[in-house]
Amino acid sequence: MAVPIYQSATFAHSAFGQSTGYDYSRTQNPTREHAEKLLAALEGGAGAAAFASGMAAIATLMELFKPNDEILATDDLYGGSIRLFNNISTKNGVKIRYIDTSDLKTVEAAITDATKAIFVETPTNPMMKVVDIAGIKKITGNREILLIVDSTFLTPYFFNPLALGADIVVHSATKYLAGHNDTLAGFLVAKSLEHAEKIHCLKNTIGGVLSPFDAFLVVRGIKTLAVRMEKAQKNAIKIARWLKNQPKITSVYYTGLPAHPDYELSKRQTRGFGAMISFRTDSAETAQNILNKTSLILYAESLGGVETLITYPATQTHADVPETERQARGIDDKLLRLSVGIEAAGDIISDLKKALM
Question: Where are the beta strands (DSSP E) in the chain?
């Protein structure tokens, strides 16, 4: 019923020319292989590769590119991805340009002969913009431009970017896929066998692979993915509606609200809205009071676990982004991000109500 944990670094051969198919766990391990095949099947990909974290996955992905290659990236991107792109990828000669990927005209105008990939998050982190994947694919057409989608917020339960034209899907499996805030993991899922094989070669060469025990935890988490995503989304819709009616909350960013500018696009390309909410308070004092006064809701980085977590992007997820850039993107000292868990929605709302007093 449970995939075995093959906690072995190396595998013996019975004789010359005979093999079990496994040699060394950096190259492949049966437990990790099970997790990879599971993710590939869920996303409809030709293959998947599992890494020690989401950032290890993205760092390995960037080795597909060479100096002077240009990547167009979502401007409202997770701060860790921005840190990697600005400090490592740029150092290695890859050119990163940040644009509003939720605007198809902006995307079309930004593409040059040097563009080799478009890297998007949808919904974006933390402003919850939605990117039209099929629309971008139509723009790129038959040009050799990879469309890479970080789909951590929605998971393959709600969204399958490869079916809409994406080439590679990124997941921080630390979040909803594992689902219990007890392991780090990342995945790359490729639509084509060619890209899957290239990524596997890079994974083996660089070595930032997922351990057998952590692969076991991811597989265990995925068994309850559907029920967790449904419950968290149900809670999120109730909480987002409640937040909209609070005097001290000036804006609510949740794709499941009909007032969200990308609501219809979300309905068209996904099967659900997820459970991530960002909201803006009337003052920094109000935001910090919420962080200090909630008790059921935990003030912590990360997202996607069974517990409801609240994050202050300006000092946590986006702390390494220069202040002027943060401010331009709306990430100021009034903005909070809520990862809604599976507790009773009424209890979560009561906790927020107490903190807003």
Answer: 47-51, 70-74, 95-99, 115-121, 146-150, 168-172, 186-190, 249-253, 276-281, 298-299, 309-311, 335-339
Of 32, 69, 75, 78, which one is the catalytic site residue?
78
Give 245's pLDDT tier (boundaries 50, 70, 90). Answer: very high
Confidence of residue 154 (pLDDT cuts 50, 70, 90): very high
Write down all domains in the chain, each with its CATH number in brackets.
30-222 (3.40.640.10), 226-356 (3.90.1150.10)
Catalytic residue among 32, 95, 129, 175: 175
Smallest CA-to-CA distance from 121 within 69, 178, 58 is with 58
Is residue 320 pLDDT above 90, yes or no?
A: no
Burial 238-249 (b: 16+ CB within 10 A, else e): ebbebbeebebb
Query: 263 an active-site residue?
Result: no
Kindly give, in sequence order, each residue whose CB lies less than 8 Å from that of residue 305, ignoring residues fewer than 6 positions away: 175, 179, 180, 181, 339, 341
| Virtual torsion, Cα 130, 237, 270, 37, nearest 10 deg | 110
Q: Residues 95-117: pLDDT tens digits?
A: 999 999 999 999 999 999 999 99
> Confidence band (pLDDT; 50, 70, 90) for 319?
confident
Rounded to an integer, what is the distance from CA 82 to the centroid of its chain?
Answer: 13
Catalytic residue among 26, 83, 198, 244: 26
- Which entry of 69, 132, 150, 167 is annotated as an active-site residue? 150
DSSP single-letter state for residue 113:
T
Dump pLDDT digits (tens) for 155-199: 999 999 999 999 999 999 999 999 999 999 999 999 999 999 999
Q: Is 175 a catalytic residue?
A: yes
Compute the distance between CA of residue 245 and CA of residue 181 in angstroms, rounded to an integer.
31
Q: Tell me: the pLDDT tens digits for 247-261?
A: 999 999 999 999 999
> Are residues 134 and 114 in contact, defined by beta-carbon separation less than 8 angstroms?
no
Identify whether 26 is a catalytic site residue. Answer: yes
Does the pTM surpass 0.85? The reply is yes
**Contact assessment for residue 266 and residue 256, using Cβ atoms and an 8 Å cutoff:** yes
Instruction: Give yes or no: 150 in active site.
Output: yes
Residues 6 or more apart whose CB falls under 8 angstroms from that of 154 comprise: 122, 123, 270, 272, 274
